[in-house]
Amino acid sequence: MSNVFPSLRGAFGTWVYYPVLFSPKQVDSLISTSKEIREASSLDDYLQRELTSNVVKIQEYLKIEENRFFNSIIVGVFDAVPDWFALNVSGIDDLSSEEKETIDESIGILRFNGDEKLFAIDGQHRVEAIKRRYQEDNSYDDQISVIFVSHADTQTGKKRTRKLFSDLNKTAQSVSPGENLQLLMNRILKIS
Question: Which of 10, 15, 33, 177 is the most buried (most CB within 10 A)?
Fold first, then answer.
């Protein structure tokens, strides 16, 4: 399995992040829950919720919904730092110097050496559902959007990562009962 990924690199506040595409096989073999990689439970207690029956619902959604889609999984990286190789577009004459500089800073290759530990900061239910879906049918082949951020395994780093998890989830809005009913009706009509 390749450890090299085409990637973007961006900065949002104090976070530097790297969006990539993962196959279900890569999600299954490379991304863990914090519980799978932590000896102490203190990070688990504050970083992730317990897995719920939503995993089965998401797995079923992945199995039956042709028009499936969901947002990116946020993955923390620690114990090693992937290499970043910026692409060089200096040879493209149709771009201005400013455009070339922006592209050079933002598009490249992310290479993992295999020592990194990867864990879902946000999206652990989706990760588990993807793993289960892939394990039941290894021909399952969606391209999954994964965003990597660096996690420092220090008290300050843990606090920063917990805050990211909290910030991502405190504004999440549930689907309204009317929207849920419409989605259910669409599924019923599709099945019949």
Answer: 33
